[in-house]
Amino acid sequence: MTIAFDHSYARDLPGTYLRVDPDRATAPKLLVLNRALAGDLGLSLTDAEAEAWFSGASLPPGADPIAQAYAGHQFGGFSPQLGDGRAHLLGEILAPDGRRFDLQLKGSGKTPFSRGGDGKAAVGPMLREVLISEFMAAMGVPTTRALAVVATGEEVWRETKLPGAVLARTAASHLRVGTFQFFAARGDQAQVKALADYAIARHYPDLAGADQPYLAFLDAVIARQSRLIADWMGLGFIHGVMNTDNMAISGETIDYGPCAFMEGYAPGTVFSSIDHQGRYAYANQPLILGWNLARLAETLIPLLDPEPDRAVEIANDRLTAIAPRYRADWTAVMRRKLGLPGEDPGDGALADDLLTAMDGADWTLTFRRLADPAALRPLIDDVARMDAWLPRWLARAGDGAAQRVAKANPAVIPRNHQVEEALAAATNGDMAPFHALLAAIRQPFSAVEAYMLPAPTGFGPYVTYCGT
Ligand code: AMP
Ligand code: MG
Fold first, then answer.
1. Which residues 6+ apart lie within 8 Å of 181 measured at CB?
2. How confident is the model at residue 467 (pLDDT cuts 50, 70, 90)?
3. Active site residues
4. Which atom of ligand 1 is nearest to the CA of 245?
5. Which ligand has the shortest distance to the CA of 468?
6. How much distance in Å is there from the Cα of 83 to the middle of ligand 2?
7. 384-432 per-position pLDDT tens digit
8. Residues in the ligand 1 pocket, defined by CB under 6 Å
9. Which ligand is nearest to the Cα of residue 68, counting in written order?
10. How far is the CA of 86 from the centre of ligand 2 (A)?
11. How far is the CA of 256 from the centre of ligand 2 (A)?
12. Atom of ligand 1 nearest to the CA of 82
């Protein structure tokens, strides 16, 4: 087949990227092809095409690979130049439903943005991105998607020698907070404006005619990101590296590196090996949301008002509104998880009190078992406190709560021990556990006992890594 690529980013935003070809994999082997996603994109790929095109062995006709420039605050410190150090944007695809997607290869070789890195990726981490992002998609959480993973036949060096792989991913776009920061840090206001105009046209077309389109744009990104982080919190998802270069303007979850799901509820949970201070701990994510959006707002100041003090005032207004907005988004997520019909002013407090009563209990199973106290109690340390909470919940939730809870809360999530087991097997050439886990994750509401249980005692403490 041929892919009808478009290249609006390259066409509209000269000076924001470099042209560079992916490395040519010499012995590619297709590990995963997401046929459902390919179908949604209007692509009828053969395995041979996927294997060649998504490994970099050959370029699909019409591709015009680029590496995008961006900057970013990493753990609070500003890096003025990051950029795609191991990724190549092949182009954009217009799906039959009219939506536009980036098609990007990750792990496809060095670019001028690679700094010290090798430009490569290993099989395990690329399959990890498939598992976690497919779960997010199955749960209706905005996310980039994994279209394919191809083993390259090469070895990459991490702690040890590992089989290399390339991930082909789709995204609403790869515009990041850090993309704006790259040009704002250079004082290139014209480029920031061009980026904002492009982002509005691509992601928020309704705002183009607004009185103050750049303020409306800031508001819209705040709204999408706030809902996204509320969704993450509802699932116990810990992104692990919420640097500003990993926050997408589209509101999608992006860059699945050291991310993982919390099992026992503990607000300070951190998995990433480098997050010593807990900056990106579970309960800090809503604070980082505000911090990162403040960095976006800073880049837009000159577009908000010709008078700088006034512009700062306008931006600060919006930023102080993030906390209450997030609280409302989180409460909406919790309402759904608790099966609460309508809205009641006490819903947020009811949810807060459940978290207190959970105190370390398995996040996912607690919600699944709310309506079955006999199954719930064994999870809970302080049963008396939970027993005091349950009647309050029942009184508020009313009839049909059990069914609503079962519909809102996943039975199966990508549990850390199972993810690790599947990736270890895949690294050794056995894809069967990966495919079984992937199938279960794609049906998260189907109770499959084998995938529902927390890690056995003795597993962990679980540690995840960046740049893998
Ligand atoms: P991340 O924290 O994974 O989002 O990556 C931060 C930056 O490091 C981005 O500019 C990446 O392109 C770059 N990077 C990560 N891993 C590699 C690698 N193996 N080779 C080159 N660049 C990398
Ligand atoms: Mg990144």
1. 70, 71, 72, 73, 78, 244, 295, 299
2. confident
3. 245
4. 4
5. 1
6. 8
7. 999 999 999 999 999 999 999 999 999 999 999 999 999 999 999 999 9
8. 82-86, 113-114, 117-120, 241, 245-246, 255, 257, 466-467
9. 1
10. 10
11. 8
12. 10
Q: Whose CA is nearest to atom 3 of ligand 1?
A: 467
Q: What percent of the chain shows pLDDT beyond 90?
A: 98
In this structure, the residue with its CA closest to atom 15 of ligand 1 is 467
* pLDDT tens track for 14-37: 999 999 999 999 999 999 999 999
Ligand nearest to the CA of 118: 1
Q: Which atom of ligand 1 is nearest to the CA of 74?
A: 2
Centre of ligand 2 from the C-alpha of residue 255, in Å: 5
